[in-house]
Amino acid sequence: MHPKIDLDHLNEYLDARKLICQGVPAGGSIGTMDLLDRFRQLTSSRSTIIQSSKTHPGLCHDPQQELDDIFEKYVL
């Protein structure tokens, strides 16, 4: 994260993504799309404040453990 980022501006972007994920009209025109189209919009590569990594069809035996590992590796 850039040290001079405006945290209020970043939170606005995160709030908008949350509304889009929820599929509510408050998420704008993207928020009203069907689930697959919202997913495509949120994961598309583009130059924005928040950039998603490339998606992949990963399979695992223990999804919760994988999420915990990813969280510990990239967030904590």
Oligomer: single chain
The end-to-end distance, rounded to whole angstroms, is 14 Å
Approximate strand percentage: under 5%
**How confident overall, as mean pLDDT?**
88
- Would you list the SSEs in sequence order as H and E? HHHH
What is the number of helices?
4
What can you tell me about this protein's structure?
With 76 residues, the protein is mostly helical. The chain contains 4 helices and no strands. The two termini are 14 Å apart.
Helix and strand arrangement:
Blueprint: H1 7-22, H2 28-31, H3 35-43, H4 63-74
TL;DR of this structure?
It contains 4 helices and no strands. It is mainly alpha-helical and 76 residues long.
